[in-house]
Design brief:
alpha+beta; Pemi-like Protein 1, Chain: D; two-stranded antiparallel sheet; 2 helices; 22% strand
């Protein structure tokens, strides 16, 4: 399938037919990569905090899970400066 490059402000773009987007599972966001002089467009996989559980487990095993800030903050407001 051929597509024409169009001007969008200072950028360039292409129009992708709705059917092509649906077949690829692309809804709103994409990942854009360059591989061997080709532009590769794939659906963005949004999984916030993916892998955090494994990362935190490794931190515990390595002893890297110490608090950086003392969580015993005094909440007595008479000493606060506003």
């Amino acid at each position: 399938m051929k597509a024409e490059i169009i001007t969008i402000g200072n950028s360039r773009g292409i129009r992708i037919p709705k059917l092509v987007l649906e077949q690829c599972g692309i809804k709103k966001e994409i990942c854009l990569e360059i591989e061997n002089d080709r532009i590769v467009i794939t659906p963005a996989k949004r999984k916030p905090r993916a892998g955090w559980d494994q990362a935190f487990g490794l931190m515990g095993q390595n002893g890297d899970d110490a608090l950086l800030i003392d969580d015993q903050i005094g909440l007595e407001m008479e000493h606060w400066k506003w």
